Amino acid sequence: MKKKVVLTGAGGFIGRHTIEYMLEKGYRVHAVDNTAHPDLNYKDKIFWHSCDLMDANQQKSLLNEVRPTHLLHFAWVTIPGKYWTSPDNFRWVTASLNLLSNFGSYGGHRVILAGTCAEYDWSYGYCSETITPTRPSTLYGVCKNSLQEMSEHLCKQNSLSRAWGRIFFLYGPHEHPSRLVPSVINSLLRRKIAHCSHGKQIRDFLYVKDAARAFVDLLDSEITGPINIASGQPVFLKDFILEITKKLKKEKLIKFDKKPLQEEPPLVVGDIRRLRDEVGFKLKYTLENGLDETIQYWRNLIKNK
């Protein structure tokens, strides 16, 4: 079967990093975003489509034209500070279900959708696909979890092979500048104080290029159901941030004085046994070299402004 993939959210934080790996595996990549002029690598090796996936007619026309065998779906509302409660979450559930139906109608075979660790009941701390209950506490998590459940049944009815990648805490190039890691790096690069919470929270951080490879490996497999996209390595938030300050030699500019949100859980770590044992995924990046690349990306961005 000739591998032809529609990649939604292709200009986004994760989507743009998957392109290289899909090309390596022989996919013809049809990258989709609502951006007219994408800032992407490998533009000469992919097919670019500017499409509003919320528009049912545009979506149907796209899939009718491309007739993909595979679908990798990242597009969603992702604006920091807004996506947790945005009404657009409901609209993306509807758009995603339409996308799956159209994908099946035009001969699709294999689909991977991006979920979130926010689907889990975070009071458990350790998140396993087969053990930990899904009990989201935010609108974003509720909508993602609802799509996960509905897409499972829709794909069964349409004989589609489907997996659901639950993303944990990513960092790396092209992340939104207001998020934690870029905001700390940019403050320190500009010799400004970076204010953080106490940092006692334990999290599971994964470099975005490893996350992208994990999704492409999953796409290229026949593994089905929910899969955690995580490192499986618990790290204190404070230690993670201090590693950034050491690399930039700006230890005196960090202040652990902000109060964390009341609902912020003390521990969120992913069980990666399915990803490791069934998909066969192995981490390529350590925390050390992942942060090195991330810092260099933001340093270059500031330098070239």
Describe the structure using short key phrases.
single chain, 305 residues, alpha/beta, Rossmann fold, UDP-galactose 4-epimerase, domain 1, 2 domains, 3-stranded mixed sheet, 9 helices, 20% strand, globular
How would you characterize the overall build of this protein?
α1 crosses α6 (208-219), α2 packs parallel to α3 and α7 packs across α9. The strands form 4 sheets. The chain has a 7-stranded parallel sheet, sandwiched between helices. A 3-stranded mixed sheet has the order 8-10-12. The chain is globular and about 60 Å long. It folds into 2 domains: 4-170 and 207-230, NAD(P)-binding Rossmann-like Domain (Rossmann fold); 171-203 and 234-267 and 285-303, UDP-galactose 4-epimerase, domain 1. The model has no long low-confidence stretch (mean pLDDT 95). The longest helix is centred in the middle third of the chain and has 19 residues, at 139-157. The chain has 9 helices and 14 strands. The N and C termini lie far apart (45 Å). It is α/β, with parallel strands linked by helices. 38% of the residues lie in helices and 20% in strands. β1 (4-8), α1 (15-24) and β2 (28-33) form a beta-alpha-beta unit.
